[in-house]
Write a structure and sequence with these properties.
mainly alpha
Length: 158
């Protein structure tokens, strides 16, 4: 990525107004920066955060159905189909038929997927440490706990 394509969280001379007071805006800016760290660390595997999440979930829950993975990841079924297609193309994941349910597929990592996930996970952990190096361990624990509390809050009412 060229330097002029990189995310600039605070552009000099730009007024942000209410945005600086919004938690969601701050989280989004941090997420963009974390994604940049992640993307540079994992480019050689063609792995994105979403692909890494899917591989991790399936590795720990082999046989998970496509619809379950979509629900767990909070994405549409069509999105998870495209995600699994990409992981299959990389020879990291495969669909297996589910006995008694011709319409469903169980997901498993391939041997290559299992092997590479070990290295990918190490790279993700190193990248996460690099991206959060300016935070004390106690601050990082507090941040994660607070973000989990926000994500576990009841959904807004329609």
């Amino acid at each position: 990525m060229a330097d002029n394509d990189r995310f600039v969280p605070r552009v000099p001379g730009i007024r942000y107004g209410i945005l600086d007071e919004l938690t969601g805006y701050a989280v989004r800016r941090a997420q963009i920066r974390l994604y940049e760290f992640f993307e540079s660390a994992l480019a050689s595997w063609s792995i994105t955060p979403q692909r890494f999440s899917a591989m991790t979930i399936v590795s720990l829950n082999p046989g998970l159905k496509l619809t379950d993975l979509a629900r767990i990841m909070g994405i549409a079924r069509s999105g998870v189909v495209a995600l699994v297609d990409a992981l299959e193309a990389l020879n990291y994941m495969e669909r297996q038929t589910v006995p008694g349910d011709a319409r469903a597929f169980a997901l498993v990592l391939t041997d290559k997927g299992e092997r590479d996930l070990v290295e990918i996970t190490r790279a993700v952990q190193a990248c996460d440490q690099e991206a959060t190096r300016m935070l004390a361990d106690s601050d990082l624990s507090t941040l994660r706990a607070m973000l989990l509390r926000i994500s576990d809050a009841p959904a807004p009412r329609d």
